[in-house]
Amino acid sequence: MGRFSTVQTTARIRERLPFLRRRARMVQAVRAFFEGRGYLEVETPYAVPVPGEEVHLRCFRTVLDHPDGTSEVRHLHTSPEFAMKRLVAATGQPLFQLARVWRNGERSATHMPEFTMLEWYRPGAALSSLMDETEHLLCSVLPPHLSYGEDALDLSRPFERLTMQEAFARHVGVDLLASAGDAPRLAREAGVSLREGEDWEDLFFRLLLEKIEPHIGRERPTFLTHWPAAQAALAKRDPADPRVALRFELYAAGLELANAFEELTDPQEQRQRFEADRARRVQITPEQDWPLDEAFLEALPDMPPTSGIALGFDRLVMLATGAPRLEEILWLS
To answer: Which helix (H) or strand (E) holds 257?
Structure first.
């Protein structure tokens, strides 16, 4: 049985080798891109006391044993975000990291419980500048024209920039921001039935998934920007319109590639958001409880105005190679 398994594994690796060689070249190209722009590559701990504050992500848990016989709970992080922002606050430098991250219970064609995240943070950059830089990155590591699934992407054209308000008006036919917090109104104007127990946020994401995401990023990548303030997470609100947050996600050929913020640096507002997220998370999964990251909150006032982004590197490799499943561009899975 063991021999048969070994033979199968060897065959799978050999089949993947062209994809894996491309992956290795893309790692080199990414590092060259950021080093050429003055970024410093960093490495942050993977086993941490606080893995993140996302409501719906499940974390891997472990125990750190000390030589004196005591022990502490640790979690494998879902993102290096908190640690990297502390480094930005301490150094004021632009930083990037190719980090392994973990999200328990996730496995599909585009999800794995362990994967590689490319994160970078640029002090002094507004969200529009970060979109420019992200576009330059993709154009530097991908060919100008590529096919993925049924989509033909033209990266020689400027990427589309579409606000969430514009996207809902175009594809759902509603005034999204006018309905904020009012689930019955959003359902009525969208022409859908409100499901039992479904609140405004649930309906927002259902409409986004079913009516918007299938239609964006199909001919050229699309930045979906200015998310409702309820989905601000760690982004600051837009001073010109506090109903929205300075956040974007990037879509290309049916793949959600990246999530980015113009970073919130107000520790009191961030604490309030964390506490609200925690209450919702623990209600859903009571075991997903840990202390607030006080070191991160204490560092926020020292962080200069910064924009940061998390990009799924494995999905970027899928786009480059045409691999239909994420596991096909991993050395072992």
So the answer is: strand 255-262
